[in-house]
TrEMBL record:
Keyword Lyase on entry: yes
Transmembrane segments: none
SUPFAM superfamilies: Phosphoenolpyruvate/pyruvate domain
Keywords from the named record: Lyase, Pyruvate
One Pfam family here: PEP_mutase
Gene3D superfamilies listed in its UniProt record: Phosphoenolpyruvate-binding domains
Protein name as it appears in the record: Isocitrate lyase/phosphoenolpyruvate mutase family protein
CDD domains hit by this protein: ICL_PEPM
Phylogenetic lineage: Bacteria, Bacillati, Actinomycetota, Actinomycetes, Streptosporangiales
Length: 256
């Protein structure tokens, strides 16, 4: 229950997201109390597009390795790699057997649509029935996709809470007023995504956010450092910016 407790401290849990064992081990060594994974990073290492539902094997292999770390690990499962609740429940049960402390399960598809609420509720119920000790962070993508209102987001969040989720992840929520409404309207720890230039860790804590995820930022920053270092060694201008999610995804789609 150590991972659960990290969501109820005086400050938000800052969750850095790893993409291989070395990045996870270095983040744990740096003192972070828990580590997550990033689906974009896992997809990038595998040479596959993100959110394609095609990285289940790579995700499980990485999870098994990261479970050796001395800190709790939570795994990004995208949409669960299946439309069958029993399959998703079995997957999370397998991860729990390795020692994984938490999972993210999202309701958005790569094409910008959302799973029906009842179907996502069935997914969550299946996970909690087979792996009740795993912290299930239920992600709703209405804000991320720019498709929903606060009321719709709260409706989904509360349905997922009633189904047994342990936390709610609303990536894309950044404005103080929106975050405040979400904190007040959701009976579970709220997780938001750090958005450079738009969110401030201390301010999110003041608003009542309990978890702040780095998402793919660390992975994308590592790609920036790789290219700029190589350019610098070659004596060339080395001012490449951090690639966006869309930049990396485009490369992965072109190479698939």
């Amino acid at each position: 229950m150590r991972f659960h407790a990290l969501h109820h401290g005086d400050e938000p849990l800052l969750l850095p997201n790893a993409w291989d064992f070395a990045s996870g081990a270095l983040l744990a060594e740096a003192g972070f109390p828990a580590i997550g994974t990033t689906s974009l990073g896992v997809a990038g290492v595998a040479g596959k597009p993100d959110a394609s539902g095609d990285t289940k094997e790579e995700t499980v292999v990485l999870a098994r390795r990261l479970a050796r770390l001395p800190v709790p690990v939570t795994v990004d499962l995208e949409g669960g790699y299946s439309e069958r609740p029993d399959d998703v429940g079995a997957l999370v049960s397998e991860l729990a057997s390795y020692g994984i402390a938490g999972v993210n399960l999202e309701d958005g598809y790569a094409d910008g649509t959302l799973r029906p609420i009842d179907h996502q509720v069935a997914m969550i119920e299946a996970v909690k029935a087979t792996a009740p000790g795993v912290f299930l962070n239920a992600r709703t993508d209405l804000f991320w996709l720019g498709k929903g209102s606060l009321d719709e987001t709260l409706g989904r969040a509360n349905a997922y809470a009633d189904a047994g989720a342990d936390g709610i992840f609303v990536p894309g929520a950044a404005e103080d007023d929106d975050v405040r409404v979400l904190v007040e309207g959701i009976p579970l720890p709220l997780n938001v995504l750090h958005l450079p230039g738009r969110t401030d860790f201390a301010r999110l804590g003041e608003l009542g956010v309990k978890r702040v995820s780095c998402g793919s930022l660390l992975y994308r920053t590592s790609l920036q450092a790789t290219v700029n270092t190589a350019l610098s060694v070659a004596g060339k201008p080395a001012g490449r910016p951090v690639p966006s999610y869309a930049d990396v995804q485009s490369l992965l789609e072109d190479g698939a």
